[in-house]
Amino acid sequence: MDIVAKLKERARRAPKTIVLPEGEDHRIVEAALQAAKEGIANPIVLGEVRELPGINVEWIDPERSDKLAKYGQSLFELRKHKGMELETAKQTIRDCLYFGTMMVKLGDADGLVAGANHATSETLRPALQIVKGAPGIKTVSSFFLMVVPYCQCSSEGVFLFADSGMNPDPTSEQLADIAIVSAETAKLVIEDPEPRIAMLSFSSKGSAKHARVDKVVEATRIAKEKRPDLLIDGELQVDAALAPEVAARKCPGSPVEGRANVLIFPDLDAGNIAYKLVQRMANAQAIGPILQGLDKPINDLSRGCTVEDIVCAIAITVVQAQGAA
Predict the structure, then answer these.
(1) What pLDDT does 302 receive?
(2) CB 216 within 8 A of CB 235
(3) 141-281 CATH pick, 3.40.50.720, 3.40.50.10750, 3.40.50.1100, 3.30.420.10
C-alpha cells in the first residue's frame, strides 16, 4: 500500500470535519464529494449553498450563517490589541478564509484546506492571526511529502522536504525549529518512529567555509541541543545525506548514516528548486505544501492543484487533526 493509500486508510478510521473555504471552485467541490464518498472526512464547503447530486456535503454561506456575529466578535477579541475595530472585524469575518479559520479556532471544524484560488500569504494570514503557532514552536513552516518511484535512496521512496514553500531565508534558530517540527511531522505522517534528519548545505562537515555554511552548522547545534533524542546531523551535502557509501567517506559516524528521509533546506531557493526538480525529473509525486507548526491543522494548496491533490491534502489534514486530538 503506497503512502497516499495509507493516509486515506488512517483518515477513514476516525474522520474529522474539514472546512474548504473556496466553494466557488469546481475542484474544491469535486474533492469534497470524493472525500465524503471515500469516507476520509466530513467536509464543509463555504460559499453560496448549492444542491448537488450524490453524496451529501454540508454547505455554509458565511453571509447567512447564524454564527457570523459570534465569529466577528471573536475576531475582534483576538485582534483588538493590534488595533482592529469591531466593525472591521465584522466585515473581515465575512471573508470565507477568515470565517473558515475561525471555525477551526472555535472547534466547529477540525482543520482547513485552502489555496486553490488564493496565494499562500492569503491562506496563512488568517491562520497566523487566529489559530497561531503551536506551543514551543516559533516558526510556522511548510513541507512537501515526496513520493519517489524506484528510488535507490530509500526502500519506500518517501521523503519529507522542508521548508520548500514558505520561509525565504530562515535564520539558524528558525532552521532548528523547522527541523524539530519536521521530525514530529515525519513521525505522524509517514509513521517513522525514528526519522533521520539532514541539515543540508553545499558543504559537508567543514568542506567549505562560508557564512551560509555557518548558518546551517549553528542550526544543527541548536536543534541537537533542544532535541538530543533526534537523529539529526549537519551540515551535509545531499549525497552525504542520501548515499551511505558517500556518508562513510564524508561524514563517518554520522547518526544519519546516509539514509536521511527528512531533508531540511537552508533557504527557500534550495527547497523550492529541489522539490520541483525531483518532481519533474524523477516523476515523483509532490504532496503539498502542507503547513506545520500551527496550533491546529490549516493547509495550503497550489493554485495549480488537481482534485486528487486536494483529496490528499484533506487526508493529511485529517491525520494531523487525529494527532492533535
Answers:
(1) 85
(2) yes
(3) 3.40.50.10750
